[in-house]
Amino acid sequence: MRLITTLGGRRLTHVVLCEGMGARLQRRYRSVERVLVCSNAGLLGYASEAVRERGPVLGPIAPDEVDDFYRQIDVFVFPSLYAQEAEPLVVLDAGRHGVPTIAFAVGCLPGMVSPHHIVPTHADFAQAAMAILAGPDPVCPSPEIAAAFATRRDAALTAHEDLVRHLLR
User: CA quadruple 44, 107, 79, 132: dihedral positive or negative?
Assistant: First the structure.
């Protein structure tokens, strides 16, 4: 990456999935000036059939059953510690349905999930999730979560259009 940023210099536009990823890229490589955020939220659009993720506890969820799955749950728990976690489509889809997510602070998740529902990576996830659920603030589906997803999706769709225009120049 250092070679790319050095040779390309300040004329390159770097495509990332979230603002945090762009900020980390710019801190690490000082020559990176232009960053375009193209969230995976634009991939979901308005149709759930784009989601092919599987639920490890419930077993496989057919694409036509995804909407029903999210209607039946109050909270989505995503305990991934994968260091390169980007923008999991299952977390985006939970947001699309207004379902809150509890997740570790990895990848783009801190910008996707309520700060009150982020678990530090050094913490015991089960204990932290139980404390969040037992806390004073209700953890339940809400129109505000769905609205935040819609804002993210709309920004992603605009960024995707900008990216295509940039590539076709």
Answer: negative
**Coil/strand/helix, residue 35:** strand
Residue 76 phi/psi, 5-degree rounding, is -110, 125
Start-end of H helices in 37-142: 41-44, 66-72, 89-96, 109-112, 125-134
Q: Which domain holds residue 20?
A: 2-41+155-168
* 17 within 8 A of 37, measured Cβ to Cβ: yes
Which range is most confident: 40-44, 47-51, 92-96, 161-165? Answer: 92-96
Compute CA 156 distance to the chain's CA centroid, rounded to the nearest angstrom.
Answer: 11
pLDDT tens by residue, 147-158: 999 998 998 889
Q: Give the total residue count for the chain.
A: 169
Give the total number of structural domains in the chain: 2
Average pLDDT over residues 103-130: 93
130 and 66 in a common domain: yes
* Radius of gyration of the chain measured on its C-alpha atoms: 17
Pair of tokens at residue 19: 């603002």
